[in-house]
Amino acid sequence: MINKEVNNVQEALEGVQDGMTLMLGGFGLCGIPENAIAELVKIGVREVTCISNNAGVDDFGLGLLLQNRQIKKMISSYVGENDEFERQMLSGELEVELTPQGTLAEKCRAAQAGFPAFYTPAGYGTEVAEGKETREFDGKMYVLEPAFKADFAFVKAWKGDAAGNLVFKGTSRNFNPNMCGAATITVAEVEELVPVGELDPNQIHIPGIFVQRIFQGEKYEKRIEQRTVRQRS
Length: 233
Fold this sequence. Notes:
Blueprint: H1 9-12, E1 21-24, H2 34-43, E2 48-51, H3 63-67, E3 71-76, H4 83-91, E4 95-98, H5 101-113, E5 117-120, E6 134-137, E7 140-146, E8 152-161, E9 166-167, H6 176-179, E10 185-194, E11 213-216
Parallel strand pairs: 1-2, 1-8, 2-3, 3-4, 8-10, 10-11
Antiparallel strand pairs: 5-7, 6-7, 8-9
């Protein structure tokens, strides 16, 4: 067994440099790698391209990197509730590549599986397909989409072991599983790091072969992006 456990987030992010392409799991604020993002802010890495469904909110998640002008380009599918993201995009300060959500997930999964590209009907006839190869299958038009190429993937899981096996909880599975193994180095932060053999093999969502580094995170805030409650009667 290869021990992939590192002592802390600082060791986990060794090798991250300016100008790299980074994948970050999560959807909204659910299942985001909070510790990794905080460390990216701390080390001040610049001119990075971030692949993520969205960019969090103004004061949390990837919104912190946007505030510091650390992101050169966002590849995402949703501007969301982040006013700063919207402002930088409309002003031309930030390069933005908006991608259909399913296509974004599949571009991660294709990279994970080693496929260079795939055909999808999503986006045909729109700006999304401009400059891309198209092809007809059974009377329907498809767009050729290349798989992502990233230097690091940062994901968040509920439990993991030193071999890198991961278990996600609830909706935090979102983009996290697809990003595992979709970059040169996958870093997993977990809420609970358990000894090898403690995880039920039938419950493991991602096997350790897709993970290069793993560490136990701390001080998770788990913010709610939009809180909706019913009125008292």
